[in-house]
Amino acid sequence: MFDVEKIREEFPILHREVYGKPLVYLDSGATAQKPLAVIEMVDYLQRGLNANIHRGVHYLSEEATTLYEAARERIGAFIGAAEKEEVVFTAGATASLNTVAHAWGEKFVRAGDNILVSEMEHHSKKRHLSILKYFQYH
Ligand SMILES: Cc1ncc(COP(=O)(O)O)c(C=O)c1O
User: Fold this and answer.
1) Is residue 96 within 6 Å of ligand 1 at its C-beta?
2) Whose alpha carbon is nearest atom 3 of ligand 1?
3) Whose CA is nearest to atom 12 of ligand 1?
């Protein structure tokens, strides 16, 4: 069973009040609130690691690489990826969709194909489709 209160407990920001009421946050498309596990890991990465993945040959860099690859593995298993290399982290939704538009769109979208995008979609989801030379914005 999906226990909303248990999940709310994991998000420190949801413990605060706004206008005298418990915070209800609905702007996750713009800024996702973080559960304590993420906040603590980011804190550790800043205070105790702070090294590049896949580049340095020193201890901190190797630890960063190990953590990064473990995250890819775990997320890959969660989303049903065939291998962890299918998991690519980006800075956000816009960068992700840009990557898909370039890598997948340029290869498979051709003149005459249709891409359906709801009018309600955020600008960031439509903008990068325009990089496809066949995309027409109606
Ligand atoms: C609804 C919605 N979708 C997408 C985005 C873009 O997300 P990102 O900043 O991760 O590229 C935003 C950013 O404000 C947004 O509000």
Assistant:
1) no
2) 29
3) 30
Confidence (pTM): 0.79
| pLDDT (0 to 100) of residue 125 | 72
Query: Is 92's C-beta closer than 6 angstroms to any atom of ligand 1?
Result: yes
Alpha helix stretches (DSSP H) within the chain: 4-9, 36-44, 59-79, 93-100, 106-108, 123-127
Distances (CA, A) of 15 to 24, 114, 138: 10, 45, 44
CA 138 to chain centre: 28
Cα–Cα distance for residue pair 84/19, rounded to 1 Å: 44
Q: What is the mean pLDDT of each run of 10 residues along the chain (138 residues)?
A: 92 96 92 96 96 95 97 97 95 86 84 80 73 59
Within a 10 A sphere around the Cβ of 31, how many other Cβ atoms?
9
Contact 100, 75 (CB under 8 A): no
